[in-house]
Amino acid sequence: MRHVHCTRRIRAHRIRTHRGHRARRAALPAVLTATAAVLTALTPQTAVSAAAPAPAPRLGECAAGELCLWERADFGGPRRTHELSDTDIESCVPLPQGTSAASLANRTGRPVTAYQSAECAETGEFDTYPSGSWAPRTDYRVRAVKIWES
Questions:
Q1: Domain hosting residue 7, numbered range
Q2: Distance in angstroms (rounded) separating the CA atoms of residues 138 and 26
Q3: pLDDT tens, residue by residue, 15-40
Q4: Is 94 inside a domain boundary?
């Protein structure tokens, strides 16, 4: 008789355990949803805004047909413009003595090389920017430019 009683108790325990397991499994999505809601509420606003894409940088004003150079990065400071009508093609055009540029826009319709050297020497840094280029920060101070025949 004792054996039968023990078997019933084990079966009863298994049923209770199984039912409890199903209840826990059903409650899991609700617990996870509640946890996500709490974490979202506790997340600092800066972390949420950091995930948002950064706004596009503001471009300086530069009309079609111009090469525009700015004294400071991000198109800041005084702007100098060069047009094809007043610039010799494939000639070194130094910026005025004591000035340089830290950002540029090339809208000439031709490639433009910007030089660190005021004499367009290739011993210093230089980069060629295709037409349509906007460079908010050059890698060096630009002291001369050369507009190329396309």
A1: 2-51
A2: 59
A3: 444 444 444 455 555 655 665 665 55
A4: yes
- Please indicate, yes or no, if residue 71 is contained in any of the structural domains: yes
If one counts the domains in the chain, the total is 2
106 pairs with which residues across the strands?
Answer: 67, 133
Domain co-membership, 47 together with 83? no
On whether both 134 and 98 belong to a single domain, the answer is yes
Let me know: does 118 contact 143? Beta carbons within 8 Å: yes
* Helix/strand/coil for 74: coil
First to last CA, the chain: 104
Query: Reduced to 3 states, what is the DSSP secondary structure of residue 93?
Result: strand
pTM: 0.62
Distance of CA 125 to the CA centre of its chain: 25
Strand order in the sheet with 144-147: 93-94, 144-147, 112-115, 126-129
User: Is 71 in a helix, a strand, or coil?
Assistant: strand
Q: What is the DSSP letter of 86?
A: G
